[in-house]
Design a protein that fits this description.
Length: 261
């Protein structure tokens, strides 16, 4: 598997497909495998680049301070390493936070930008969700944290309809879990993230998408985000939870592909 040396670790990435470059940036879990179910469709149209966030997945990390700005720097470094000048970018949750930074600071590097299940800055609901998750992590450990994660990511019906799938999902999260201190630092990174004062500088063609039943970053957060970006398009999926690209993949692709072509 290819990798990129960074000042504080080794970033692992994959490149697949053929066409214009498309960077997929994962949410808090950090694993590039999050996008696996979309790869057959996307690689028919794009050269798709995925990577593990530093400190997660198969990376080797010496990063002790976790900031979304550092994740954005990793994305730019990876694009430079691959010789990519301009690219499409789809960012999920934490990845949507990365997209906001790149959209405001280096808009010349972006073509289509999709901010999926994102937020411009925290509110009391957001703070409560992530603070409770961190408290569970610190009090009960990483395994309990990961067992609770599907409650935040997926619709209740999707969780309830296939226990074997749920068990595999949780087991995979636990088996690949970063250390508790890394997980806690990454939660703090999101609680500290607030780009409300800078999203007005974003100029890339932007789609803001979320599902109406997202319990982690509810639609009102995407509404605020879209309202602050000049010309942003807004799409609301009726169902899919925080991980609609996995639970409602056809509707998700139908919504995002026009924004990338």
């Amino acid at each position: 598997m290819p990798s990129l040396e960074r000042p504080d670790g080794t970033l692992v990435y994959d490149v697949a497909g053929d066409g214009p470059p498309l960077m997929l940036v994962t949410g808090l879990g950090g694993s590039r495998r999050y996008w696996d179910n979309l790869m057959p469709a996307l690689t028919q149209r794009f050269t798709v680049i995925t990577h593990d966030h530093m400190g997660t997945g198969e990376t080797t990390s010496r990063r002790t301070v976790h900031k979304v700005e550092a994740l954005a720097d990793d994305v730019l470094a990876l694009a430079d390493h691959l010789g990519i000048g301009r690219m499409h970018l789809v960012g999920h949750s934490t990845g949507a936070a990365v997209g906001q930074i790149l959209g405001a600071e280096v808009p010349e590097r972006l073509d289509g930008l999709v901010l999926y299940a994102g937020w411009a800055g925290p509110d009391p609901y957001f703070d409560l969700c992530f603070s409770v998750r961190k408290e569970l992590l610190l009090a009960a450990g990483a395994a309990a944290y990961h067992r609770a994660t599907p409650l935040f990511l997926y619709p209740a019906r999707w969780i309830g309809e296939d226990k074997a799938r749920l068990d595999r999902l949780i087991a995979g999260m636990i088996a690949s879990s970063p250390p508790v201190e890394t997980l806690a630092g990454r939660v703090d990174m999101l609680l500290d993230f607030d780009r409300r004062k800078s999203i007005g500088r974003m100029r890339a063609r932007t789609l803001v998408i979320s599902a109406d039943d997202d319990q982690l970053t509810p639609p009102h957060l995407s509404e605020e985000l879209a309202s602050g970006i000049s010309g942003a398009r807004r799409v609301r999926l009726p169902w899919g939870g925080h991980a609609a690209s996995q639970t409602a993949s056809e509707a998700f692709l139908d919504a995002i592909l026009p924004a990338l072509i």
